[in-house]
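User: Hello, can you help with two protein structures?

Assistant: Certainly.
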Amino acid sequence: MNEAADRTGNPPGSHMTAEIAEQPQVFAELLGRRRAIGEVAARIAERRPRFVLLAARGSSDHAAVYAKYLIEILLELPAGLVSPSTATLYGARPDLTDVLLLSVSQSGGSPDLLEVTESGRRHGATTVAITNNPGSALNEAAEMSVDIHAGPEQAVAATKSYSATLLALYLLIDAVRGGSGEQAGTIPELAQTALDTSDGAVDEAVQRYRFANGMITTGRGYSSATAAEAALKLAETSYLSARAYSGADLLHGPVAAVDTETAVLALCSSGRGGEAMRPVLDTVHEHGADICVIGSAASEVRAAHRIGVASCAEELAPVLEVLPVQRLALGLALARDVDPDSPRGLHKVTRTR
């Protein structure tokens, strides 16, 4: 019997399985809190920030990449990712007047993000914490906060807290531009459909890749965030060596290492990002790679295996396409005799500085 099951009395992966299944309800509850998010957005809009910085680690860093695309496309503001060590290790204290600093952390417990937020606020930034822990030190340090309301998460690998962070960021950024979040109204139902209909295709993918030594994950546009999250999920749950590249970066050198022994997980949803993946996957196919495509445009590109997802507004696709990614990571972990609830050497809250 799996050692972790002996210690906890729960079957391996039971927490991760349950938390993946909770996501449609989490989305519905988050949509019901749009008014509170809108109030934060209104205060941000009043400040008229000239630039947006995003501070995050781990899965939250991938959510920040998604937010960067939203900010640059929907708000047409420049945005960048903070390097926390510039503040924590090197003591840099830039002037952040008229800058919006979004600190994204599911736990709100990482010391480096706390220090970056405190420093940013002292040096002129409008600071907003996006967390799953309204009582965290990060929430107290920031001027404003958005609670993603995903509920307690027991598995080490983030699932519902990650996807809820994506949706919260979309609702916040859409509201800053004066939107009502209307495009997200059907997300709970579409998420339930994605979970209900993907089992067979995910199970086939598990059998196809259970003995893979490594995998490349790739996507463009909004989906590049999902590619990064997919690589992390595969590495931390099933110990599969995975490397994420944007579709554009994959062609700038790494494709030379792709051959018939290479497994590629590609995120392709309807829209400009998915369309831009066509020539990427054509090239990867010519190199002989085994390609698995996830997304609403899965049937429209070259692949050996496909996991379809319902179509929605392109900027919301990462909220849906990550669901079969999580299922795949869970299935591969169990198939490789790993308990994804308790990966070796990992803890739910990682404290870095």
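That covers the first. Now for the second protein you mentioned:
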Amino acid sequence: MNSSVRNGNSCPKESEENGNNETSETRYPDGTVKLRNPHIELMDQDILYHIALGSESHDLVEMFGDVKFVCMGGTPKRMETFAHYIMKEIGYKLPTGTTLMDISQYSYRYSMYKVGPVISVSHGMGVPSIGILLHEMIKLMYHAKAKDPIFFRIGTCGGLGLEPGTVVISDDVVDGLGNHYYSVPILGKVVKRPAKLEKKLVRELKALATQDDPYDTTTGTTMCAEDFYEGQGRIDGAFCDYTEADKQDYLENLVRQGVKNIEMEAVPFAALTHQAGIKAAIVCVTLLNRLKGDQVAAPKEVMNEYQQRPQILVARYIKKYLQTKGRLCSLDGHGSIAVKSPRRFKLVQQESQTFE
């Protein structure tokens, strides 16, 4: 196999704020998303297998054209909870007799809910899972003609020198080797895509943390591991070839490098949104201090409360944005799937159910 390396040099030219989201490479003049894949426009239909949608089976402009925020987190239950929470926070009203619907229920892979201009979707665990979802969510924004969407990852993590329950807003991301890029083997060659987050968005989120919050909110570097156990220096996996002292030395060295937390999705999230010219931020809550142990021991009710904290901060941002734009007063929903072609609609359902 050819092991040569080529750098991803098609990234949008950067501004001082870590990415100009309105470059001609990533946006049309009206602000809608432009894909960096010329093949999509030539396809009869683009089936988004893993979220059970299609460009010709569904009227994606009608369904998602008003989307401004895409919020994603690991589990379906967490993102269903966030959907109900943001619905209350922004005053979104469903028609009488209707409930929030899992739009991607036929995929059996991810769960997705839409609350006015907000999508709440699960991304699963780890680099491959979130990578697949990001490709399809970016394509969804393109097909829907959504204008300048903002992506958020709302998650959990292990803290480094931080008390459990601390909220961490990532201002930089690295992989397990300290690299600031996402390495993807493509056609036998390794492509490196810069993993960057917009600093302005980080500052805006940090400014929304208040002294009344009964927990700390901080910013810092996030390490993205490709494994839960050995990849994060745990000693409680099925295998372990290092000592407790080795682990402590490693974690303390990460702290000296400015790493505040460890999770499993930050690098592809930052790299693919940056490649697409989409503003993005990562907000996680620490479930434990890894300098003091490897296993989460907090009671379930405490864990549930911790997981609400990133949701609260992101909801503050969304609510403030909508208030500034005067959009909180017109949030009545239709709560329906818009079908363009019943035949293609059935095909997409079948493809999504059987695609491996």
